[in-house]
Design goal:
- By secondary structure, the chain is of the alpha/beta class.
- The chain has two domains: 189 residues, 3-Layer(aba) Sandwich (Rossmann fold), CATH 3.40.50; 58 residues, Helicase, Ruva Protein, domain 3, CATH 1.10.8.100.
- Helices cover 36% and strands 20% of the residues.
- It is built from eleven helices and nine strands.
- The chain has a seven-stranded mixed β-sheet with strand order 4-3-2-5-6-9-7, with helices on both faces. It has a two-stranded antiparallel ribbon with strand order 1-8.
- Helix 8 packs across helix 11.
- The chain is elongated and about 65 Å long.
- The N and C termini lie far apart (59 Å).
Length: 261
């Protein structure tokens, strides 16, 4: 199948076999896994994942792609297609509906909506075993960035508080049709265990992180003045004169705990 990629869906179809094989190898699906693929497109990843796992659920918004995908999958394994915007899919309910504890999620995510999809998945991290995504390399760099890095920001903190983020390898533009203008990268996200999750209200953490990075050139004392004062910041063992990008994810957890007192 050679479908015409649609700009409105941000479609770039992966076609180069060696990168497809590397992604499937990284995921290493087993017969007892419940695999969910976001945006299967032409099925470049779908079919080999389906062959390994025996069954697969795909979430596809483009109705034009679904009939051919189902037809090609019929001789490979049991494919179920959910026609929906992925942001409207309740992954926790999907796991419960199929009687599984955790899903394994994969996908070549549209660049224009990758961050909302990541945050949506993280909301259901308790029902997810792991996630393997192909994204714009710049986004993967931000996801895995350490404190002090120029690309360390809200995305880095919020994802690292819930998941272990592992960049795996870079995929060049030529591996796609049409070629994007930037490099892509594959990343593995593994949700942390319950005992490793922040012991603070997630909504409060998000509020503080968002405020801190909204004005990242300002000191925390100024950036957080509408959330907590300098004395409260110091009570969290954080310097009010520090800037957002110098704090670790756990520093933000401490700030959230103090702000709740």
């Amino acid at each position: 199948m050679n479908a015409r990629p649609k700009k409105s869906f941000g479609q770039h179809f992966l076609h180069e076999k060696r990168y497809i094989e590397r992604i499937v190898s990284a995921i290493s699906p087993r017969a007892d896994d419940f695999v969910v693929e976001i945006g299967p497109g032409e099925g470049a990843l779908t079919l080999p994942l389906l062959a390994a796992a025996g069954k697969l659920t795909a979430i596809e918004l483009d109705t034009d792609l679904i009939p051919d995908l189902k037809a090609r999958a019929a001789s490979v394994g049991e494919l179920s297609v959910i026609h929906s915007d992925v942001l409207k899919v309740d992954f926790t309910a999907l796991a419960h509906r199929h009687g599984v504890e955790r899903l394994r999620i994969a996908g070549n995510l549209p660049y224009y909506i990758s961050s909302p999809i990541l945050f949506h998945c993280v909301e259901h991290a308790h029902a997810i075993q792991d996630m393997h995504f192909m994204l714009q390399k710049e986004v993967v760099d931000r996801m895995a960035a350490e404190p002090g890095s120029k690309v360390y920001g809200r995305l880095s903190v919020m994802l690292q508080l819930v998941c272990r983020v592992e960049p795996l390898f870079v995929v060049p533009p030529g591996a796609f049709r049409p070629p994007p203008k930037v490099d892509s990268a594959v990343v593995r996200m593994t949700p942390l265990g319950a005992d490793q999750l922040p012991d603070a209200d997630p909504a409060r953490i998000h509020t503080i992180v968002k405020a801190a990075f909204a004005q990242r050139r300002k000191t925390l004392g100024n950036a957080l003045k509408n959330v907590m004062d300098a004395q409260a910041i110091m009570a969290a063992d954080v310097d009010p004169k520090a800037r957002a990008e110098t704090l670790s994810p756990q520093d933000y957890v401490r700030l959230a705990r103090v702000a709740a007192e």
